[in-house]
Amino acid sequence: MPHDRLGRRRFLTAGVAAGAAAATGAVDPAQARTYHGEVPWLPHAADAPRPVRGDTYLFFTAEEAAFIETATERLIPKDDLGPGARDAGVPLFIDHQLDGAFGRAARWYMQGPWAKGTPTQGFQSRMNPAELYRAAIKAIDAHVKAARGGKTFAALTADEQDKLLTDMESGKLDLQGVDAKTFFTVLLQNTKEGMFADPMYGGNKDMAGWKMLGFPGARYDYTDWVGKQGVRYTLPPVGIMGRPAWTPKS
């Protein structure tokens, strides 16, 4: 038994040494760096967020904007709790997202195979989000024009719009080459994001979504409230870039 243990021990230690040698041998000594008192990244090397300035659309055409403004408003309509999606800037949020890395699916795997995915697998379209929006809106308006005497989605009554959105959600609507259910899922998700994302991205105007939920936002310090269990938080919400009352006027 002692001899057996010794043999195994030698075998294991030899394996560890060989693995370490292989690992260190894979690194080119000329490219190696030793870090002293710093972290292994450079400041400002990451993608900085792009605050949305103004209310100009960068991606949507006038016809596409009419659809998005109407459709998102049906998903989050104005009521006694607060503004609807349109007044909260949701269409502007979606527009700028589609004009950026999200619209291009810049960080997504977008190669085949293109088999039909399951709901748990997430987005499975061969089109990136920008292509999906453009193709879907065109197909929806074409469908409505053929069925409603030349009208567009934006010109339908609220009940007709809701019926069409419901058919999209259930996958009953045939959009000729565009999966209606996939598009509805993306549209609904982006509408929620635009309503509740930080205002710097164009949506959640005046922090309306946060105020509706009672969410305090990105306030830097909550130490005064840690022990106040069950007490209503009364301070106004704060975004990443502050809030209007803090912004100096030039």
> Separation of termini?
85 Å
Reported for the largest beta sheet, the result is: none
Give the low-pLDDT segments: 20-25
Strand coverage percent: under 5%
Question: Quick one: how many beta strands?
Answer: 0
Summed over residues and divided by their number, the pLDDT gives a mean of 85
Radius of gyration: 26 Å
Structural class: mainly alpha
| Count of runs of 4 or more consecutive helical residues | 8
Helix content: 40-55%
> What general form does the structure show?
globular
Task: Report what the structure shows.
The chain is mainly alpha-helical and 250 residues long. It has a domain at 62-213. Helix content is 42%, strand content 0%. It contains 8 helices and no strands. It is globular. The termini are far apart.
Give a short synopsis of this structure:
The chain has about 250 residues and is mostly helical.
Summarize this structure as a short list of keywords or feature phrases.
single chain; 250 residues; mainly alpha
